């Protein structure tokens, strides 16, 4: 794995005037979209881009799953899943993972998007039942043939992880899945309505950390870089790295998906939360979100360059942080491939 380096040409002081121009182009014309090049201009990204050689094969596999295993879902939903291109996302984010593991990761990414997009708009009582059923499956219950294919996909990769991970890791992963599902329920109680009661920035951050599912991503990174024992994972340094990685993923997603989430009446978007709390223009809120993201990158790199002594696990912790960097960079690079955020223009 290639070590991270804080490149001064990448982590330069952000030009807020440029950020504002990009934002105005993004919002004023419905035919003009923010691009990954725009984001790379204004977001710090010291993480070297990589991609798995299995990307094309993964894409074939995932498209087959969607056609065959998600076939009972509504056709517009299936079309959205294909445009997502989860194979590209996985290939950019875990470039060092062997093909079998990367295949499981791709299935898990597709499930995560499907779970959120399909179930989040459900009423609270129905969504609670879905969460309960998912947790039964997480602990080993095999879903019946009549159940939703999203539940079946979850069962498949959970059993695949059980075959390769430690019992300690599985317990941690199941807990982190429960936090993700709880985050979806909280999001559902806020979003998908015209009269959104936005949380404060302080309230938004812990909720977003749950519903972005980065804790489960951190767990998967360990399957590539080396599983850490619980006493290392709970160390304040590793916990801080996991939190920072989650904020970077969530906030880059909020910047990328701003227009989509405005049209979908989403309430957990950093830009919209800032605008509501500060009573400021959307442009100023966008600029502040960019500044918050870049500050988190600097915090993350400060951690990476000051890893404490974990004995025999010191190199494993270092690889873990490098894996987080690949995920963060991989998400931005995946944005060039996916059509998830370009459908508004096409429609």
Quick gist of this model?
The protein has helices spanning about 15-30, 35-40, 55-70, 75-85, 85-95, 100-120, 125-140, 150-165, 165-190, 200-210, 215-225, 230-235, 235-255, 260-265, 270-280, 280-305, 315-335, 345.
Write a concise keyword list for the protein shown above:
single chain; 347 residues; mainly alpha; Farnesyl Diphosphate Synthase
Notes on the structure:
With 347 residues, this protein is mainly α. It has a single domain (16-346), classed as Farnesyl Diphosphate Synthase (Orthogonal Bundle), CATH 1.10.600.10. It contains 18 helices and no strands. The protein starts with 15 loop residues before the first helix and ends with a helix. It has helices at residues 16-28, 36-42, 55-69, 75-84, 86-93, 99-119, 124-138, 149-164, 167-190, 201-211, 214-225, 230-233, 236-256, 258-263, 270-278, 282-304, 314-334, 343-346. InterPro entries: Isoprenoid_synthase_dom_sf, Terpene_cyclase-like_2. Its cofactor is Mg(2+). Its EC number is 4.2.3.-. Keywords: Lyase, Magnesium, Metal-binding.
């Amino acid at each position: 794995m290639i070590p991270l380096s804080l490149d001064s040409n990448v982590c330069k002081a952000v030009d807020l005037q440029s950020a504002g121009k990009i934002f105005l182009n993004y919002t004023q014309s419905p035919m003009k979209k923010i691009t990954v090049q725009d984001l790379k201009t204004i977001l710090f990204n010291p993480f070297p881009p990589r991609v798995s050689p299995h990307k094309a094969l993964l894409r074939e596999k995932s498209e087959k799953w969607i056609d065959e295993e998600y076939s009972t879902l509504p056709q517009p939903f299936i079309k959205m899943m294909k445009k997502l291109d989860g194979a590209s996302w996985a290939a950019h984010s875990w470039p060092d993972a062997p093909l079998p593991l990367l295949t499981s990761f791709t299935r898990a990414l597709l499930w995560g998007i499907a779970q959120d997009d399909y179930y989040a708009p459900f009423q609270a009582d129905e969504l609670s039942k879905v969460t309960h059923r998912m947790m039964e499956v997480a602990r080993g219950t095999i879903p019946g043939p009549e159940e939703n294919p999203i539940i079946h996909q979850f069962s498949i990769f959970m059993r695949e992880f059980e075959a390769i991970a430690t019992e300690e890791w599985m317990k941690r992963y199941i807990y982190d899945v429960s936090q993700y599902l709880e985050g979806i329920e909280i999001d559902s109680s806020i979003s998908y309505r015209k009269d959104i009661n936005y949380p404060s920035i302080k309230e938004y951050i812990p909720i977003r950390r749950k519903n972005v599912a980065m804790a489960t991503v951190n767990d998967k990174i360990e399957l590539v870089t080396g599983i850490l024992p619980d006493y290392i994972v709970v160390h304040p340094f590793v916990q801080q790295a996991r939190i920072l990685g989650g904020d970077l993923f969530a906030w880059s997603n909020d910047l990328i998906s701003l227009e989509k989430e405005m049209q979908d009446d989403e309430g957990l978007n950093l830009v919209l939360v800032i605008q509501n709390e500060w009573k400021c223009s959307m442009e100023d809120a966008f600029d502040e979100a960019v500044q918050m993201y870049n500050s988190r990158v600097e915090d993350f790199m400060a951690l990476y360059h000051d890893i404490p002594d974990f004995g025999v696990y010191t190199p494993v912790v270092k690889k873990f942080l490098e894996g987080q960097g690949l995920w963060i960079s991989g998400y931005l690079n995946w944005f060039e491939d996916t059509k998830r955020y370009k459908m508004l223009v096409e429609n």
